[in-house]
Amino acid sequence: MKEEHTPIQTPLDSVIDWLGNKLSIIFLVIVVITAYEVFVRYALNAPTFWVHELALFLGGSLFVFGGAYALATDKHVRVVLIYDNVKPKTKCMLNIFHHIMGLLFSILMAWASYRMTKEAWFRPTGEFSLETSGTAWDTHFPAYLKAIILVTMILVCVQFILKLVSEVKRLVTLSTLSKAKEANNV
Asked: Where are the domains positioned within the chain?
């Protein structure tokens, strides 16, 4: 019989899970405004200039947050053929490797998004000026989305750190239990 290895759920993961469930309602908003656009464009021959841009911004924002949500709910991609057939101690080591690689990637993404956000929010002279979309509506959505990416990548970095610490603690506990079990069997 296989030993159970439950995913680590940090308090931050619980908040992200809760927030993700609330934010998922925005997908319905995207569907409603897109249906509205289809109706007014084809039935009334009166297309809007705002629906497409708003739907892209909302969908893009949710897509970015989806990475943090997938990590929080342990729904990210892993090679289950290997992962599901190893002992809990090996799973801990695989998780630690995953969290280290994820943290490194997230740090690089946070740095890149910081640079993008800085360029989108400030002119080269340092003057505050939000980037606009350049469309008929000409919103500041591109600048806002870049800031959302930055905040989300910082959040993912914190998630990986918390998960890494928890997984190392779990590995130490498993190693201690394993040694105690060996000592009792001798």
From this structure: 11-176
